Amino acid sequence: MNNQDQTSNCKGYITCSSLEELKKLTRFTPVNGKKPYIKQWQSNPKTISFCENEIKQGFADGYGLITGNGLLAIDFDGCNAHKIALAIGKWLVTIDTLAWSSGKPSRKQILVRIPEHRLNDFEKLSRKPLTSFGNVEAVKNEQLEIRYNRCQSVLPPSSHPETNGYHWLRETEIVQLNDYQCNCILSAIDTDNQSNTKQYQELGFRQDTCKLGHDVKKYNKISLFLYVYTIQPCIDMRKNPQLAMYIQKIAFYLSIELTFRAYNFFKFPLDFERKLNILGI
Question: 25 has which bridge partners?
């Protein structure tokens, strides 16, 4: 067994011994282009055999592990992600647990277990991207992402659109976190949430603005629904691509404006570009 961060020769689907226990679970979903395609896949997990059959039939080019229920994945996306992890705790970088990579530079994922007596502390956690922490400032398109409930992570040797595919880095046991390590992760998430809330309040947001990103998505879905089912059918996309694109942009702008007006967030007016900057769009 190779415990070093180097490319594995593992060719089959879940052949490393540390995943034998996972093979018995129904916690997988087939993917195509890294994305799950099974309807409501979060609540409709499949066996590894089902995923392998989908791949053989050409419907899928890989499979993902549905995290949660004690299994937590941490995605290192770029060099800055490693700096953020070090700022949270050195153990997060050196921990000897199951690890894999897409093959892109400075990209890897690790899988750890949450101890049973700490499961309640993580029950509300879904996906949390950390773009900065402590003295580590944000770098565009780089983040440390924590995945738990209603998330999935693509496993080797699934295909990747930009590389030769995923491969194992460390084929070793899945480490169970201790209380200190659990507290480090929860503290990092809580610190990031507090930082965002403080920033919003300084800009004039009301106290409840942590729901901002969620509601932008909600209103965006509403406006795009109107576009797709009412306007788009009236347009010949081939003859009027510019008009179709223009209407789609209007739908997007509408979603942003609906969000801000619904909450009446600001004590002072902001132009549309500033609103986009605040939302990170």
Answer: none
Q: What is the pLDDT of residues 178-203, one digit of tens each?
A: 999 999 999 998 876 665 545 544 44
Nearest to 98 by CA among 158, 147, 167: 167
Q: What is the pLDDT of residues 1-27, one digit of tens each?
A: 343 343 333 344 555 565 677 777 889
For residue 32, give the amino acid letter: N
**177 and 114 in contact (C-beta within 8 Å)?**
yes
Specify the pTM.
0.68
User: Following CA atoms 154, 158, 159, 160 in sequence, which dihedral angle do they give, to the nearest 10 degrees?
Assistant: 30
- Residue 102 neighbours by CB under 8 Å, 6+ apart: 154, 160, 162, 163, 166
pLDDT digits (tens, 9 = 90+) for 66-83: 999 999 999 999 999 999
Q: How far apart are the first and last CA of the chain?
A: 44
- Say which residues have a Cβ less than 8 Å from residue 240's Cβ, sequence separation at least 6: none
- Residue-range domain boundaries for the chain: 17-199, 205-279
| Rounded-to-integer distance, Cα 151 and Cα 69, Å | 11
Number of Cα atoms under 13 Å in the Cβ half of residue 12: 9
* Spatial contact of 49 and 56, defined as CB atoms under 8 Å apart: no
